[in-house]
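Please complete every field before forwarding. Incomplete forms are returned to the sender.

SECTION A: IDENTIFIERS
Entry label: holo-390
Bound molecule: guanosine-5'-triphosphate
Molecule representation: SMILES string

SECTION B: INPUTS
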Amino acid sequence: MPVQVETLSLLNAVQALALGLMLWVGTHSGNGRALAAIRLRALALAVEASGYGLLALQAFISPSALVIGGNALNLLAQGMVVVAIRQLLGEPLRLKTAATIGFLGWAGVSWLGAVYPDYRLRVLWGSCAILGNVLLNVEALRGGCRERDTRARCVLLWVYLLELALLLWRNGSLWLGSHPPDQVATPTPVNVFYVLLSGMQPLFASIGFLLLYNEILRRELHDLARIDPLTGVANRRAMGEASDRMLAEARGWRGSVGVLLLDADHFKYINDRFGHDGGDKVLQALVGHIQSMLRSGDIVGRVGGEEFLVLSPGVDEAGLLALAERIRATVENSPMVINGEPVRLTVSIGTAVAGPGGWDMTVLRRRADAALYAAKRAGRNRVMSSEATA
Ligand SMILES: Nc1nc2c(ncn2[C@@H]2O[C@H](COP(=O)(O)OP(=O)(O)OP(=O)(O)O)[C@@H](O)[C@H]2O)c(=O)[nH]1
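SECTION C: PREDICTED COMPLEX
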């Protein structure tokens, strides 16, 4: 069945335009980095559609205008996709690199189309520009097929891999074939297949892009559900998951996990004196002090209003008491200034160590809680071990 490049291009233009419109309208309300990236992708599709539109109208356009205009639109759309993917992933945008690739690609292709016409060199030059953009995308998506929760990155990586294969095949057939065409509109099997597949590419890439958007939103939701919004540390739920993980690991290699339960002393007074906002600032500063004392691998989380849990793998009783004492002393000796007034805060800490014979987090929490209660009763601003209060 004879297939005309113009007809295919028209179909591609309609498809890219429809996809772009759907993405644009579907994300029109709302703000944020991810939505902005989708809208940029939608605009890129509209630009891509214009490129295919030019190819469909080639009978009415001079060949050099087609080369100059068509490639300008194509390369512009590719540059926009590079930026959109990077924006979606939160990677550096590489605007300058994308613009340089686009400009050099367009200038070379235009030269080899209008001034010194050479179709094979023109395709090769344009392919190098496409290769540059694809490599930028692959770099942003790197590692996508390694982890289970980054499957959408993997899908997009495959789409770009197929694009590279298509480029290779097109150039190979041009340089090695016996009767190479002299422009993309010549209806040779290679050209028809190239326009057909490259026309489907926006569809595949858009689906991949939406999958990626979904993956990123899912991860953001996952994180949001596990972060305390006031202090930015793990919340009770995340600490529950972290303690299960840590205890299971330590149990595997017969190690230990230290548990610190820390409560700000007389916090009600701070709220009464400085207001709830002032109290919030004190809690944020307190978290900063705790974090400054932790080793890598230790985790702090907020498990109550002014109550924090620290998990420290691989420590023994003495090490844990030393860590607790360092935190207590740091808080006591670091006066904070709220609304221009100095605030002295102290904390009470209860400790417990998980090890052979005691791996149950509920029991550990209860022991640390009892030690904390003992520290409060003994006058506050002190560390108590569950061993001493057992
Ligand atoms: N600013 C602020 N205050 C909070 C927050 N969550 C809990 N609180 C306050 O923390 C105070 C806790 O008071 P209490 O449980 O009586 O304990 P306390 O005054 O610290 O006394 P002790 O623990 O016995 O030393 C209450 O006033 C709560 O309103 C919060 O997110 N922000």
